[in-house]
Amino acid sequence: MASETPSTFAPEVPLDGKSIKALTMLHLKRSFDLFSGNRLSGQAIPMDEESQRLKLSIKIKDDFSASQHLVAPAGGPAKPALGPAPGPASTSAAAGEASRPESKSAMAKLIDSIPAGPSKSSENSQALVMYNEKQQQKAVMDVIKDSGNSSAAVSRRLGSKWPRPVWHAPWKMYRVISGHLGWVRSIAVDPGNEWFCTGSADRTIKIWDLASGQLKLTLTGHIEQVTGLVVSPRHPYMFSCGLDKQVKCWDLEQNKVIRNYHGHLSGVYSMALHPTLDLLMTGGRDSVCRVWDMRTKIQVHCLSGHENTVCSILTQPVDPQVITGSSDSTIRLWDIRKGKTMSTLTHHKKSVRAMVAHPTEFAFASASAENIKKYALPDGTFLHNMLQQQRAIVNTMAVNEEGVMATAGDNGSVWFWDWTSGHCFQQEESQVQPGSLESEAGIYAMAFDQSGSRLITCEADKTIKVWKEDDRATPESNPGLPFRPPKDIRRF
Question: What is the pLDDT of residues 428-440, one digit of tens each?
Fold first, then answer.
């Protein structure tokens, strides 16, 4: 048995439980028959020409696309080589080479079968560059399609294109404002950048001077926590909502309530004003976003579709004009004309408590307990995750025109991000005031002023904190946290 070759084994080997050698030989025969069938017949394993041609064409375009125009096309006139004129010896040598039978390997024939790009000249140089770029992009997409998004070479090339963050000066807290008797739940800044207002769990709305931080006015009317505030840029109106199911319109010239919007079945958590139309959007625990006519108090639409509390609302003058985030882990883009959902984003796994739209780019970001994500509008195309994880329930977020985005969580953490790259360049922890519990370090709302140079945070220790950039900081003195681009761009 030991002297026999594997090819002479009988198909049936008796296995009596005692002969381990027979069992081993049987497995060897199966492996031998599986992998060496072509070798026994004296033929080499055939090469998959299509895959080899694709591999070679991609390699040629990647490595020699900049110099392909220097080589004469096949069948065309060859450029004379530099050197002495051909003499009799060289002529005879050339004749000898021409008389030799042509012998090319299979790989050489495969290379010759790859179509070459157009020749380069002074008139069509730009066209050639565009052609090469299109061919390279097509080849890369073919590789991705054929390999199931598993090409390591393509992943490395795409990963190198991750944008590097712009340096931002660090932010520091310079003012603490006290006056509320409960958690500070909401904030809105005057469009004229002269004052800001805050709503609290003490059922009051206070108006503060932005420059000095002094209290200017206290408004009462709600009978529960004030969870949302917004100031109209086109009217002398301020709108507020609370857990008492009420939505109120305040006349800032008379400092009193002039309208009430009735319809919510439970507490109202979020609100937003349409930038160009006289429409007010409110969302709450009844899982709907209600659209109100600002002047007539009529409910225009009841945008239903969420299965849990509507925590955040964004509005913009173009479609989608309303974007809502909910505790059911989804984000919905609404068609305000039909009152129906345009698309539903299901990228988050937990409650979407905060959203913010970039002031100049057509994009927005959303925050949840597991991550912060960016989307492109109008289709809500997912762009990428932020490069770090805050590891907190993010309650609020804000962004200014310089590309600084701030997020705050229920553990008192305030993180500052570079909008373009998603890099967190500063991490701060809010300090609770003396006499407060450590569990009262949560931050419920924040907003930049109209200039983007001041950040105001509303916290659970009943205080309001104001942050600003450090004017004396330089890239050398404050480089910020190290930037680490993602290793695998496909995860983003």
Answer: 998 888 877 777 8
Question: At residue 193, what are phi and psi to the nearest 5 degrees?
Answer: 60, 35
E strands of 89-193, at which residues?
A: 171-178, 184-189
* Distance, CA of 361 to CA of 183 (rounded, Å): 33
Give CATH for domain 171-491. Answer: 2.130.10.10
Query: Domain-by-domain residue ranges, the chain?
Result: 128-161, 171-491
3 state SS of 298: coil
Q: What span, in angstroms and rounded, lies between the C-alpha atoms of 355 and 423? A: 18
Neighbouring-strand partners of residue 363: 376
Report the distance separating Cα 331 and Cα 174, nearest Å: 36
Burial of 7 (0-12, 13-18, 19+ CB in 10 A): exposed
Rounded Cα–Cα distance for residues 386 and 423 (Å)? 7
Digit-coded pLDDT (tens) for 176-210: 999 999 999 999 999 999 999 999 999 999 999 99
Is residue 151 helix, strand or coil? coil
Q: What is the mean pLDDT of the chain?
A: 82
User: Tokens at residue 205, please?
Assistant: 């709305």
Q: What are the tokens at 410? A: 């229920």
**Which amino acid, residue 376?**
A
What global pTM score does this model have? Answer: 0.68
